[in-house]
Design a protein that fits this description.
two-stranded antiparallel ribbon; mainly alpha
Length: 1143
């Protein structure tokens, strides 16, 4: 047959196929696999082939749209039979050098031939429909187990060279031909996800084709973005590419997934326009990122870090505004902002997820806080002011978490609460970022008005200040030797946007919410500053303690520079309406913070708390007060009590004209009448401390509890009389404590146990109640006294002293009912007769027969006095102080203590050293006289008087250490005119041209302990200075003799028992006693200061740890004394006392 005839016959057959087959396909419904096989037989007719493929596609759609399961099962059986006929397996030999054979699988040969035909004929219509149909087929069978083998074979077949060529034809089409690219992407998406990613590795192995130009498909042009915005449900090229990437992230092996993540262009294009994507796609992306990236434990941290780059994190952050700006109708599904918030919250606060890196808290990256400066005599010690420790972090702070730092700057806390929560969470997880954020971010610049943006920013700043102080300031597992930079710490305490100007304007606003924000924020800032100062001022920093103390001072100074002035807070308090209890309570709490954290500044303002306290007490007595108002007033009262406790101008014992009782008793009445005892615990603590400091009761919680519980608030008729009597007694004891202390000592039967001075006042004032003749008042007061004495007995106070007090009360009583009540005071402390029961038998005889049961001995912990107090200081072999002062500027030598060290050389045991020191001090006087030093006159007078004193004593023998230490201590005061003792030191220098050594201790004891301080808040500082002077000045037996003549120890032991003396001062008194034992003064203390009797009296009054120290002190004194002399002097009684104390 000729070529022309053959060509004609082919044309004729195609014509018949074109005319008959389509009509037959349109009219017949597919009911068997044979029809499917005939339907997809290859023919070189593109139009007819497209129609047949579409018919097959409709059949696939009908499976999913079947109305019942029987029809669906029937069609699946037909499809299964058809698939079984569409697979062929052929074994082919491997290349040379390889063993065995490999299996070549062919599926859908006719359909693949059609696809190849379409590629060769460049029929785009057929190139579109065939991969689309294959994708639908794989999707249809993916949920049917019986199709698994065929599906795997098909997927592998599609990844063979010939089919990859066909896929490459579609994937390499120009971007505008989306109809060619999208079907191929959908087909690859189905392939990679079939059977849980069974052929995912094989697909990725062909990534030169299967991943070609993915970043191009993911990047839409402007027209595509506008088209997608108009119809969000329409399938687009970007959407198909996104689904393909998501499928690979889900089903690929971890190595392939890491490789995909490393393709920066792909991931960037994947997320770049995510804010313009449809809602369902955005939700799918967020879920996939969380499931396949974040929660994939097999994926390395470095891979996660590459995925969550700065750019990608910023794209995710933009989704916070998706719901506000989206044009899609709102649905009942989850909000995009909530979903992205969950994801970002997780990765930003959880280490190991690729974003959060371990940081060093408030210590900037690159700093080394473990290194202390070397001690070099050639350098001036400037502490944190030296060039080495200059604060370089005011404008920028180096951080490790660079990605989080970038995201923090991108977040908009003024837009919504979710971004505020994320930003605060970042700060909590990485404290280093707080200072970094505020050095870069400018915010809070608008006028303080209650706008939405201003309120959001204020809420963010408030939450930032509320963050806890990082453990060890964020440094590893322990506190380092050096403190963190103050410029970094202050940003976490009072951030940079909260300037003095802004806070003052907020306080002066007439808008309540703005004012209340400033007050609350400052209160939280004060509390945080207090917590930071507690860390800085802790005593466990070792050699770096001076640096921490200096940092604490600098931090307070910086805080004061930013904080609003206290006078503005006081003005706000006076301007606040009395009806506005919420703001009044907030402002009083802020004022209490000033007194607690920065008392020096608070005392300068002179806020009179007495009038405010009286006003609050009057309002608490108002009838018809609501529960909320009462709670608010009690809270306000607690803050005022804190202020009153620290205020020197508080008049506790003065009765205001508008009040029935004194200020103390009025507050005490509120405490007793309040049913919620937990709410008044701070008031209880403050009132107890006031009573103890004024020697009204003993420093025992049980004694105060006895006083509180003795008043019966249910008896409203008797309560006023009882409170009036109590008020009278308490005020008298507070005003004349010595008088009532003497009365108590006359009542006591033991040195170890006694009663509160309030009992002596009750005994003294009871006869006046009896003489008054008011039977109701007498009965009420007697009932209270009986309860009070009984509860004191149970609290552990001396029962014999209480019995003696009860007897004196009975002697002054005339009415039988009152006597009956008082007689039962110590017999039954749970129920006391109210005077209406019949008189019972007098129990005085039984009381007289009571015998003190020996107290159970407490086991005291063992203490090492040398470890607590340190060893005795000794003179060094080198005396560099003789020449060190000349190496520095004169002013620096004075302020750095070089001159003080030179003065102490006069006390050296070497005569040559003393003479050289005398000459050097004389030279120093000549230099200071010709210098420009501001305090040169006082320093010149001090050194001149010291030299006159030394010249009078002579240089042949060492100068007593108390002389040298007095001169050194006075010099330190003169260099600081703000020192609390500046005035008294100048008066000391004006007394005489030389000093009488024996009278130096007496002078300072008189001026400090027996006279009021020059400043209201200077008492404790003056006492500390005096104790330091006595402690440093006791080095030899000569010093001990001077102290003995001046009665130093008698004065200081009495000071120890004062309730106003703090724990540090008491510790110094004990250290001074121990120092006396080290210099051979134990016998002097025993015979002249009754030290063992004093120790015996203290054992039962102090806590276990302090009692152990006192007992060890008794043992050390006894061991270091001349025991034969003590035995002869005391008749062996001291040995028994020491044994009793230490056993």
């Amino acid at each position: 047959m000729s070529h022309s005839e053959s060509h004609a016959s082919r044309n004729k057959r195609r014509k018949l196929d074109r005319d008959d087959a389509p009509s037959r396909g349109r009219n017949e419904e597919i009911t068997s696999h044979r029809q499917l096989r005939e339907l997809l037989v290859f023919q070189q007719n593109a139009t007819d082939s497209k129609h047949r493929v579409n018919k097959f596609k409709e059949f696939l759609f009908s499976i999913g749209q079947a109305e019942n399961e029987q029809d669906k099962a029937k069609r699946l059986r037909e499809l299964k039979a058809f698939c079984d006929s569409q697979i062929s397996r052929k074994r082919s030999s491997k290349q040379e050098g390889e063993e065995g054979e490999e299996e070549d699988v062919k599926c859908f040969p006719d359909l693949l031939q059609m696809w190849s035909f379409a590629e060769s004929s460049n029929n785009e219509s057929l190139l579109t429909v065939i991969p689309s149909t294959l994708a639908i087929f794989i999707n249809t069978i993916s949920s049917q187990l019986e199709f698994r083998d065929f599906g795997l074979a098909l997927c592998k077949c599609l990844l063979q060279k010939d089919q990859l060529r066909l896929l490459n034809r579609g994937l390499t089409a120009i971007k505008s031909k989306e109809h060619l690219i999208s079907p191929c992407l959908r087909l690859l998406t189905e392939v990679v996800g079939f059977d849980g990613g069974a052929v995912a590795r094989l697909l990725y192995a062909k990534r030169d084709i299967t991943f070609k130009r993915i970043e191009v498909y993911l990047t839409p042009n402007k027209a595509q973005i506008e088209e997608a915005a108009e119809d969000s449900r329409k399938s687009t090229l970007r959407r198909n590419a996104q689904k393909y990437v998501l499928a690979n992230l889900r089903f690929q092996h971890v190595s392939a997934k890491s490789d995909i993540i490393e393709q920066h262009k792909v991931i960037r294009a994947f997320l770049e326009h995510v804010r313009k994507d449809p809602r369902d796609m955005v939700l799918d992306i967020l879920k996939a990122v969380d499931r396949d990236i974040v929660q994939d434990a097999a994926l390395s941290r470095s891979a996660k870090t590459r995925f969550f780059s700065r750019w990608n994190l910023e794209r995710l952050v933009t989704l916070y505004g998706y719901d506000r700006e989206s044009d899609e109708p709102s649905s009942e599904g989850p909000l995009i902002a909530n979903e992205v918030h969950k994801l970002l919250m997780n990765i930003c606060q959880t280490p190991g997820l690729g974003v959060l890196l371990p940081d060093s808290g408030w210590y900037p990256t690159g700093s080394d806080p473990e290194t202390l400066p070397t001690d070099d005599d050639s350098y001036i010690e400037l502490g944190l002011d030296s060039a080495v420790y200059v604060d370089r972090y005011r404008e920028s702070v180096p951080v490790r978490n660079g990605n989080l730092s970038h995201i923090a700057q991108v977040l908009r806390p003024d837009m919504d609460n979710l971004q505020i929560e994320l930003l605060v969470t970042i700060f909590k997880a990485a404290p280093e970022l707080v200072a970094d954020f505020f050095t870069k971010k400018t915010m809070f610049v608008s006028d303080p008005k209650p706008t939405s943006s201003w309120m959001a920013e204020s809420a963010f700043l408030f939450s930032t200040v509320q963050l806890p102080v990082p453990t060890n300031c964020g440094w590893k597992d322990k506190t380092p030797a050096m403190p963190p930079p103050v410029s970094v710490v202050i940003e976490s305490v009072l951030p940079r946007p909260l300037t003095h100007k802004i806070l003052t304007r907020c306080l002066n606003q007439n808008t309540e919410i703005v004012t209340l924000f400033a007050v609350r924020l400052l209160t939280v800032a004060f509390n945080k500053l207090s917590a930071v100062l507690k860390v800085f001022r802790a005593t466990d920093h070792g050699l770096g303690q001076p640096f921490w103390n200096q940092a604490a001072t600098k931090l307070v100074t910086e805080f004061c520079r930013r904080c609003a002035a206290m006078k503005d807070v006081i003005l706000l308090f006076r301007r606040t309406a009395k009806e506005d209890l919420q703001q009044q309570e907030a402002v009083t709490e802020l004022l209490a913070c000033f007194y607690d954290v920065m008392p020096d500044i608070a005392f300068e303002e002179g806020f009179d708390v007495s009038l405010v306290l009286v006003d609050v007490l009057k309002r608490l007595e108002t009838d018809g007060l609501s529960a909320d108002d009462s709670e608010s007033l009690i809270s306000q009262l607690q803050h005022l009590m804190k202020i009153a406790q620290r205020s020197a101008s508080m008049r506790w014992w003065q009765q205001p004209a508008t009040m029935q009782y004194s200020a103390f008793s009025s507050v005490f009445k509120v405490l007793v009448a309040t049913s919620d005892k937990n709410a008044t615990l701070p008031i209880q603590s403050l009132l107890r401390s006031v009573l103890v400091e004024n020697s009204v009761i003993y420093d025992a919680p049980a004694s105060f509890e006895a006083l509180v519980s003795s008043l019966d608030v249910s008896d409203s008729a008797s309560l006023p009389g009882q409170l009036a009597f109590l008020d009278n007694c308490v005020c008298r004891v507070a005003k004349k404590p010595v008088h009532y202390q003497d009365l108590v000592h006359s009542m006591a039967t033991s040195d170890l146990r006694s009663v509160s001075p309030l009992v002596a006042a009750i005994v003294e004032q009871w006869p006046f109640v009896v003489k008054n003749g008011d039977e109701a008042v007498e009965s009420a007061v007697a009932s209270w006294i009986a309860r009070f004495l009984g509860k004191l007995k149970h609290s552990g106070e001396d029962r014999h002293a209480l019995k003696r007090a009860r007897d004196e009360l009975l002697d002054a009583t005339e009415r039988k009912k009152t006597k009956s009540v008082l007689k039962k005071a110590l017999k039954n402390t749970d129920q006391v007769a109210d005077g209406e029961e019949e008189e019972q038998q007098d129990d005085s005889d039984a009381d007289e027969m009571e015998i003190d049961e020996p107290e159970s001995k407490r086991e005291l912990p063992t203490v090492d006095l040398e470890e607590i107090f340190g060893t005795m200081p000794t003179e060094g072999k080198t005396h560099n102080a003789l020449h060190r002062w000349e190496k520095e500027e004169l002013e620096a030598a004075i302020e750095q203590g070089r001159i003080a060290e030179l003065m102490l050389c006069l006390c050296s045991s070497y005569e040559e050293v003393r003479r050289q020191a005398f000459v050097n001090i004389s030279r120093f006087m000549l230099k200071i006289k010709d210098s420009n030093y501001t305090e040169w006159r006082t320093v010149y007078i001090l050194t001149g008087e010291l030299l006159e004193t030394v010249q009078r004593l002579g240089l042949e023998t060492p100068v007593p250490w108390v002389v040298g230490e007095c001169a050194a201590s006075c010099l330190a005061v003169l260099t600081n005119p703000m020192h609390k003792l500046y005035g008294k030191v100048n008066k000391f220098l004006q007394k005489a041209p030389s000093w009488e050594v024996e009278k130096i201790p007496s002078f300072w004891i008189d001026k400090i302990l027996l006279h009021e301080p020059e400043l209201d808040d200077g008492y404790f500082e003056e006492v500390g200075w005096l104790l330091d002077l006595f402690l440093k000045g006791l080095r030899t037996d000569i010093d001990m003799e001077i102290y003995r003549r001046a009665n130093v120890f008698e004065r200081l032991l009495s000071l120890y028992e004062s309730p106003t003396v703090g724990v540090p001062a008491k510790r110094k008194v004990l250290q001074l006693v121990y120092r006396a034992s080290q210099v051979g003064g134990s016998a002097t203390l025993a015979t002249r200061a009754a030290i063992f009797a004093w120790i015996q009296s203290q054992i039962s009054l102090v806590k276990d740890q302090e009692a152990a120290t006192v007992a060890a002190l008794a043992s050390a004194l006894y061991r270091s004394a001349d025991q034969e002399r003590l035995a002869s002097w005391s008749g062996e009684s001291l040995a028994r006392v020491v044994k009793q104390v230490t056993s």
